[in-house]
Write the structure tokens for this entry.
Amino acid sequence: MANKWNSDPRDALRAGEDFELAAFDRAATPGWKKGKKKARAFMASRGELLSELQERLYAHGRTGGARGVLLVIQGLDTAGKGGIVRHVAGMMDPQGLSIHAFRAPTEEERAHHYLWRIEKALPRPGYVGVFDRSHYEDVLVVRVDQLADVDWNDRYAEINEFERRIVDSGITILKVALMVSKEEQGLRLMERLDRPDKHWKFSDSDVPTRAKWDAYQEAYQDMLRATSTEIAPWYVIPADNKWYSQLAVTELLARTLADLGLGWPDVTWSIPEQRRALEATMKPATVATAHARTDATLAKVAESEAEFDQLVRSLFRF
Amino acid sequence: MANKWNSDPRDALRAGEDFELAAFDRAATPGWKKGKKKARAFMASRGELLSELQERLYAHGRTGGARGVLLVIQGLDTAGKGGIVRHVAGMMDPQGLSIHAFRAPTEEERAHHYLWRIEKALPRPGYVGVFDRSHYEDVLVVRVDQLADVDWNDRYAEINEFERRIVDSGITILKVALMVSKEEQGLRLMERLDRPDKHWKFSDSDVPTRAKWDAYQEAYQDMLRATSTEIAPWYVIPADNKWYSQLAVTELLARTLADLGLGWPDVTWSIPEQRRALEATMKPATVATAHARTDATLAKVAESEAEFDQLVRSLFRF
């Protein structure tokens, strides 16, 4: 499987210091020229790679490793946060996922510092954590609705410092902001009103929140500039096409996992010794069967490892 | 998609009071005569159904419902517990999953009653909880290794009482015991020793644990008889064929979710009122687009609901 991206989406999507949200095209597909159908097929193949990369991370975590990954998803209502969890995270083994949706804080959470509930939800080593909304709500809804009287620059600095500590602990942070246009949000909300199977996704606070569109754009703009750091940059994803936003986050996540460069962990016990002990508990005929299988299996494993290495290399080639 | 099972696997797999583990064929495929290849295809189609059923449960939970489901997976090393999580639970939306793997208790956990950590991990309303090992380790490894000095019948009764409380709270419990044969376990452990990509799954306590095979079988036999209750029966799954055990658990889970009989939740707000409010925030051209889409969408929804109903009915027809 060759790389079908025509340029590295990380370069195209990364928010810099002078990021201009107002000029951002939310229907664009940066780095991808092949359309929706090819995107779906490519995403499925990337899913297999994602799943293999995740298994190495999980194996690493189970054998004492400290590395982890945290995917932070932000976006307004209907931007497609749930779709990222379902269709991107959903391609990985749920055993190695740790998913948290942050809604309006509970009374207990409100009694603590706003980072308290975030800290508690950080992924353990070996896990891919997914935050559906996050501490960034504390500079978005909290700012727009004036729920706190703070200097926002202080809060951005506090968040940057918090993320530095997370990264220092071994967790790589991947932050994606899904940006939907106002008209597309209207269409998606209308669909939720029209379809009985989507009613549960609608809330009577959605239209009032939409009325604060401009204030949210301003809060996003400031947040993206102030908290897109070297160690935890923001990737801003055009989200009017769900197939593109899911494809882009899949690619960013695969690259993030590949960058960890994890192989299979070393063993801490003696293979020949364990093999002898195990053989002593098996019938001789079963031992013979096991050894007959080994060669065929190892050839298959070598083949799949070579395929994996090729896929990983393709992530970085254009 | 017609039902491809030739009899209800619930009848074939349910452990009764006189269940005889010694007579249980671990390579059998009760209720399924069509082999592995058809099983894989059928399982994928059931996966779509599972995912739709789960979405209804999740919607129910998000709108104040109390129902939940808990899948308890037990089995010795290599029985395929992880494969059930990956390949069965992995077909659902990870947003609606709550997965816990119970390993040897931590110091904090040991300081509490053995059900303390279990209670904390119970799924919230709307979720499908998955326990990879569970409180049943407290009548399995704890009994075999004599880690507690208790009357096992008292503990079975305590567990039955605990599960009654869980069921009374609205959570349906589905318990599956994956039963692998001793020779197949030997083959699978040998594979973990032979394959570098499986080493991390092997532990130097695996062979010593395998040496206690007979004691574990006895503990399983007693547990299955004593805790297969009317409200939370055990299903004993032959696990020498992974394709069968995954297929069987998929089917049991789909039926468990279908038995909840959940439709889409009712709305608590006025649809016309919300529609008017939303339209006021949209450009007239976008409103026209939205309304033009509605008819086509509703026809598609009705079609997919009809297909869903048919699939659900097929679960109960032989």
User: Anything to note?
Assistant: Residues 284-314 of chain A form the longest helix (31 residues). The longest strand of chain A covers residues 171-179. Chain A has two domains: 9-265, 271-313. The radius of gyration of chain A is 22 Å.
